[in-house]
Specification:
The structure is a single chain. By secondary structure, this protein is of the alpha+beta class. The protein has 1 helix and 5 strands. It has one domain: Roll (SH3 type barrels), CATH 2.30.30. 23% of the residues lie in helices and 46% in strands. The protein has a 5-stranded antiparallel β-sheet. Strand 2 and strand 3 form a beta hairpin. It starts with a strand and ends with a helix.
Length: 70
């Protein structure tokens, strides 16, 4: 099992994207997906592995919050 973290793309520069993970931003590899600022994505080990809809991102974020609170 792997853990992908949802985030929102802030900026894209070639194959690198700046992604916001709830206030923490990180540069990640965007070479596997065609993304633009405002897209929601799933990141695993520093690589965007898929794009998410807003609903999917919100649902995943809520599930992660519930896990942290336990």
């Amino acid at each position: 099992m792997c853990l992908g973290i949802p985030g929102r793309v802030v900026k894209v520069d070639g194959n690198t994207a700046l992604v916001d993970f709830g206030g923490i931003t990180r540069e990640v590899d965007a070479s596997l997906e065609d993304v633009k600022p405002g897209d929601y994505v799933l990141v695993h080990v520093g690589v965007i592995i898929s794009k998410l809809s807003l609903e999917e991102a919100q649902e995943t974020i809520e599930m992660l919050k519930e896990l942290i609170e336990q």
